[in-house]
Amino acid sequence: MKIIICGAYGIGTHLAKMLSRNHEDITLIDEDDERLAQIGSDFDLLTAQASPSSIKALHEAGAEHADLFIAVTPEESLNITSCVLAKALGAKKTVAKISNSEYTAPELQDFFTGLGVSSLIYPEKLAAVDIINGLKMSWVRQRWDVHNGALVMLAIKLRETCEILNNPLKNLCGPDDPYHVVAIKRLNETIIPGGNDELKLYDLAYFMTTTQYIPYIRKIVGKELYVDVKNVMIMGGGATAVRAINTMPDYLDTKLIEISEERCEELNNLLDDDKALIINGDGRDTQLLMEEGIKNTQAFVALTNNAETNILACLTAKRLGVRKTVAMVENVDYVSMAESLDIGTIINKKAIAASHIYQIMLDAKVINMRFIMSANADVVEFVAQEGSRVTKKPVKDLGLPKEATIGGLVRGDEGMLVSGHTQIQAGDIVMVFCHNINLKTIERLFI
């Protein structure tokens, strides 16, 4: 597959590195030679110093033969323009990163398609979804709903109160049990577990279950004493915070702390009525946090543009008794540090956006896909096609790589867990958890 990426910034470089490992034919275009040089020589891709809006540069990069053209510079207008030009030159699919939420309206999709932009990526919207999912339950690091919650994946940090530690999984989650453990993150290692593997203290375990059994999972992992999230405090009033607050469930009482007085005035116009109380101040100020009721807050979300600030603020909130913390960490180098400090949910917009773009590349029908940064793994919802290999044999005979596991499926509107004897049918939505593997290997089973 020939892929052209415009913009050697966070999303573009992350995507280029990820795709180069899959041996795709990649060209990365950017006007700044220094940004291109930072990619290094360890990745199998071509670079071109040029403007993404230069027809000559697009032609030289082979836009007319491109299967996928991706524009992810910080300039929305440049991204849209370069996609329009690339499509006119012959690119099959184009993707533009945008910063205007208005463009994501469903009724505008045909308009942009007519212009030559196949897909729009709004990272703030994607990040907001992950933030809200992370706030649904105070005792869960991450939550993933499949088909309106027919199937649910929960990432849970295991503490001393967990009842199922040090017991082989074959004794805990058999074919008739209401959950499966699809992955384990232990220190710096991600494990796709077999029957003889055990859950250990401080593991981050990924459970697949159905909605009615969430209380049961909560009990066996010893999280029943965790108070449900009702009061949320957010630090940083950027675009991600605005999107998250405007889509926040009504039962959450939200306070937004923003250090810039000018930005606070803007937020009064950007936020929907009664969605949040806006406070001008520094979210790292312990006295301010105490005055604003941090002791009665169940979740603290740090969304400034500075990773160190977000991590420090979350640590302060934890010290003051907040159970649930969420930090936006755009610098990948800080992610492992944030996890080692036991910061709860980590949000990285470039990884989220890159996963969404990667989904567009796949030939199989994919409902959703996310890169789980904490586990260095992908979770993908494939739709089994009529006559595909995955429908011809029971799961145990499919020859799945050891780096992948099928956690469950949705048939019609019913979620169900998968055992080795499960026979997947055409039309099933199948949840696949993959670690350190080219997704094309799994995709072939579904087409």
TrEMBL record:
<dbReference type="InterPro" id="IPR006037">
    <property type="entry name" value="RCK_C"/>
</dbReference>
<dbReference type="InterPro" id="IPR003148">
    <property type="entry name" value="RCK_N"/>
</dbReference>
<dbReference type="InterPro" id="IPR006036">
    <property type="entry name" value="K_uptake_TrkA"/>
</dbReference>
<protein>
    <recommendedName>
        <fullName>Trk system potassium uptake protein TrkA</fullName>
    </recommendedName>
</protein>
<keyword id="KW-0406">Ion transport</keyword>
<feature type="domain" description="RCK C-terminal">
    <location>
        <begin position="141"/>
        <end position="223"/>
    </location>
</feature>
<feature type="domain" description="RCK N-terminal">
    <location>
        <begin position="1"/>
        <end position="121"/>
    </location>
</feature>
<feature type="domain" description="RCK N-terminal">
    <location>
        <begin position="229"/>
        <end position="347"/>
    </location>
</feature>
<dbReference type="GO" id="GO:0005886">
    <property type="term" value="C:plasma membrane"/>
</dbReference>
<dbReference type="GO" id="GO:0015079">
    <property type="term" value="F:potassium ion transmembrane transporter activity"/>
</dbReference>
<keyword id="KW-0633">Potassium transport</keyword>
<keyword id="KW-0630">Potassium</keyword>
<dbReference type="Pfam" id="PF02254">
    <property type="entry name" value="TrkA_N"/>
</dbReference>
<dbReference type="Pfam" id="PF02080">
    <property type="entry name" value="TrkA_C"/>
</dbReference>
<keyword id="KW-0520">NAD</keyword>
<feature type="domain" description="RCK C-terminal">
    <location>
        <begin position="367"/>
        <end position="447"/>
    </location>
</feature>
<keyword id="KW-0813">Transport</keyword>
<dbReference type="InterPro" id="IPR050721">
    <property type="entry name" value="Trk_Ktr_HKT_K-transport"/>
</dbReference>
<dbReference type="InterPro" id="IPR036721">
    <property type="entry name" value="RCK_C_sf"/>
</dbReference>
<dbReference type="InterPro" id="IPR036291">
    <property type="entry name" value="NAD(P)-bd_dom_sf"/>
</dbReference>
